[in-house]
Design goal:
single chain; 550 residues; alpha+beta; 4 domains; six-stranded mixed β-barrel; two-stranded antiparallel ribbon; 18 helices; elongated; transmembrane; membrane; Lipoprotein-release_system; ABC3_permease_C; cell membrane
C-alpha cells in the first residue's frame, strides 16, 4: 500500500539531493509539452481559419467552378445558372491590384461580385450602413474587410488609389464588410466595374453554385465533369480547403514530429535523472526491501519520483505552449512564415481537449522515463544490492546490445520504406528506433572505446578514464540524455535544411531564369513592341525566352 512508503526517504529526499538534475528534467518536460502544444494549436488554427474563410466567401455554395489565369467566358455562368438542378449561381472575378495610395502598401486582392446573386447565395459580402442599397454598383465604389482597412490605415469614406490595368483609379470606400475574419484583407466591388476597369470584360474566374434540395453533389459533378472549360475545376469549397491543407500537410506533420522528439528528450532527461538517483539510492532501497517494503512499492516509489518531476513540468508547459502559439500566430501566421496560408495573423482559439492531451502526454513521458529505472530497481536482489560496487554488476547483467542492433536494423528498414498516403510514418518510426537503440548500445560502445586508449600519466585524466572503464553503465545513463538532446538540434537543422533545399530545387525546376520581366501585375498586360528583343540583346544575357501566359 502507498501508506507504507516513506515519502520523504523514498521519493522527495532523493530529488532534493539533486536539485540541478531535477530542475533540468522539469524544464525538459515543460519545453517538450510547450513545443508540442504550440505547434498543434498553430496547425489547427491555421487550417480551420483558412477553411472558414473559404466557407465565408462561398456562402451556401455546394460547388465552385474555378480556373487559373484569364479564367473562362462569362457564357459559362449563363449556362450553369440555367442548368438543371441549379438553384442559384453567383459569378465572381478575382485579381490582385497594386495599391498606389496610400503609398507602399503592396497588393490588395479584389473580389468582383454580383451583389444580388451574392445575397441569394448567403455570402456576407455586402457592407453595413450603406446610404443606398445600390451604392456598391457604382464603378468607383469599393468595400473593404476590417483587416484591409487596418493594413491600409483607412476608414470608411476615405479614398483609395489602385493600379487598374496600368491606369491609376481612385475609389471611395463605402463600407466595411461584415462577417469576415480579422486576418482576411481584401476588397469587394461590383463585378461589372472590375471587368471594365481591369479590362476583363466577358471573362470570369469563378462561379459558385447552390443545387436544388435533394440533388447529390456527386451526381451533378459526374454529369458536368467532362463538359467544363479548359483548365477549369469544379469542386466543393471543402475540397478547396483540403487542397491548402494537403499542400502544407508535410510541413505541419514534420513540425509536430519535431515537437514529439522534444517531448521524448524530456522523457530521457527524466530517465537520466532517476537512473542516476536510483544508483545512489540502491543501498537505501535495498535496506527498505529488507525491512519489508515490497517490490511493487519500490516500483511505485520510483514512479512517484517521475510523477513529481512530470507534474510541474506539464503544468508549466501548458501556459508556455499557449504563449508561444499566440506569439507565432500574431507575428508569423499559421504557417510560421512558410507561405502556405495567405492570412498574415490569426487569433488563437482555446482547445481544452488539446490542453488535456498534452498535459497527459507530458506526465506520461515523465512516467515512461521513470519506468525503466523502476523496473531495474525492483529486480535487484536486496542482499547483493547492499554490497558496495554492485551497481555496475547490475548494469552488466541487464545489458542487451543485440536489442540495440535489432532496433538499428528496424531503423534502416523504416528509413527506406515508402511513404503511406504521402506521410513517411515508417521513417518517423525509424527515428524512434534510433533513439531507443541508444539505451542499449551506449554502455557497450563506451566500454569498447575506453579500452582503446591507454591510461594517461596525468592523475586527473587517469582517474577519469579509469572511472569510465569501471562504470560505463552509469556514464551511459548520463550521456543518453545529452545525445538525445543533441539529436533534437540535429533534427531541427535537418528539417529546416531539407525544406530549404526542396524549395530551392523546386524553384530551379519551375523558374529556370534568373530574372523575370513582366509588363504589369495583370496577366493580360503586354510589353511594348520590341522590348523583348532589346532585353535579349543586353550584355551578360546568356539566354532569354519571351513568353505570354494565357
Amino acid at each position: 500500500m502507498i501508506t507504507r512508503i516513506p515519502w520523504q526517504a523514498a521519493v522527495w529526499r532523493p530529488l532534493r539531493q539533486r536539485p540541478g538534475a531535477s530542475v533540468l528534467a522539469i524544464i525538459g518536460i515543460a519545453l517538450g509539452v510547450a513545443l508540442g502544444l504550440a505547434i498543434a494549436l498553430i496547425n489547427i488554427q491555421a487550417v480551420s481559419d483558412f477553411s472558414a474563410g473559404l466557407r465565408r466567401l462561398s456562402g451556401q455554395a455546394d460547388l465552385t467552378l474555378t480556373a487559373p489565369g484569364q479564367g473562362f467566358s462569362e457564357q459559362w455562368y449563363v449556362r450553369l445558372s440555367m442548368a438543371r438542378d441549379v438553384a442559384v449561381a453567383t459569378p465572381e472575378i478575382r485579381l490582385q491590384a497594386q495599391v498606389l495610395h496610400p503609398a507602399r502598401k503592396g497588393m490588395l486582392p479584389i473580389l468582383g461580385i454580383d451583389a444580388f446573386q451574392a445575397a441569394r447565395m448567403g455570402q456576407p459580402l455586402l457592407p453595413f450602413h450603406l446610404h443606398s442599397p445600390l451604392a456598391l454598383l457604382t464603378p468607383d465604389h469599393i468595400a473593404l474587410s476590417p483587416a484591409a482597412l487596418t493594413n491600409l490605415g483607412l476608414r470608411v469614406g476615405d479614398t483609395l488609389t489602385l493600379d487598374a490595368d496600368g491606369q491609376p483609379r481612385t475609389l471611395r470606400i463605402i463600407g466595411e464588410l461584415p462577417g469576415v475574419g480579422s486576418s482576411e484583407a481584401f476588397g469587394v466591388m461590383d463585378i461589372a466595374a472590375v471587368q471594365w476597369l481591369w479590362g476583363r470584360i466577358g471573362t470570369l474566374n469563378q462561379v459558385d453554385l447552390r443545387l436544388d434540395p435533394g440533388i447529390p453533389v456527386a451526381h451533378f459533378l459526374a454529369r458536368w465533369q467532362g463538359h467544363l472549360p479548359v483548365g477549369a475545376v469544379l469542386q466543393s469549397p471543402a475540397q478547396q480547403g483540403h487542397v491548402a491543407a494537403d499542400a502544407s500537410r508535410a510541413y505541419r506533420v514534420n513540425l509536430l514530429v519535431l515537437s514529439l522528439v522534444a517531448l521524448f528528450t524530456g522523457a530521457f532527461l527524466v530517465y537520466s535523472t532517476l537512473a542516476m538517483g536510483v544508483v545512489r539510492q540502491r543501498q537505501q532501497l535495498a535496506l527498505l526491501r529488507v525491512l519489508g517494503l515490497r517490490r511493487r512499492e519500490v516500483v511505485l516509489a520510483v514512479l512517484l519520483q517521475g510523477a513529481t518531476l512530470g507534474l510541474p513540468g506539464a503544468l508549466l508547459g501548458l501556459p508556455l505552449g499557449v504563449l508561444a502559439a499566440w506569439l507565432a500566430l500574431a507575428h508569423m501566421g499559421g504557417d510560421l512564415g512558410a507561405g502556405y496560408f495567405r492570412a498574415t495573423a490569426l487569433h488563437l482559439q482555446w482547445h481544452p481537449g488539446l490542453l488535456l492531451i498534452f498535459f497527459v502526454a507530458g506526465l506520461g513521458a515523465a512516467l515512461t522515463g521513470a519506468l525503466l529505472p523502476a523496473w531495474e530497481t525492483s529486480r535487484a536482489i536486496p542482499a547483493l544490492a547492499l554490497r558496495a560496487g554492485s551497481e555496475e554488476q547490475a548494469h552488466q547483467q541487464h545489458q542487451h546490445p543485440w536489442v540495440g542492433l535489432l532496433l538499428l536494423g528496424l531503423a534502416l528498414a523504416g528509413s527506406l520504406a515508402p511513404a503511406i498516403h504521402g506521410i513517411p510514418y515508417l521513417a518517423y518510426g525509424a527515428v524512434a528506433c534510433l533513439l531507443f537503440a541508444l539505451l542499449f548500445l551506449l554502455a557497450p560502445l563506451l566500454r569498447a572505446l575506453t579500452r582503446l586508449f591507454p591510461l594517461p600519466h596525468a592523475p586527473v585524466w587517469r582517474l577519469a578514464l579509469a572511472q569510465l572503464r569501471g562504470a560505463p553503465g552509469r556514464a551511459a545513463q548520463s550521456l543518453a540524455a545529452v545525445v538525445v538532446a543533441f539529436s533534437l538540434v540535429v533534427a531541427m537543422a535537418v528539417m529546416v535544411g531539407s525544406f530549404r533545399d526542396s524549395v530551392a530545387n523546386w524553384l530551379t525546376d519551375i523558374l529556370r531564369a534568373d530574372l523575370y520581366v513582366q509588363a504589369g501585375m495583370n496577366r493580360d498586360s503586354l510589353l511594348p513592341h520590341g522590348a523583348a528583343h532589346q532585353l535579349c540583346a543586353l550584355p551578360d544575357v546568356r539566354a532569354c525566352s519571351p513568353l505570354r501566359r494565357v
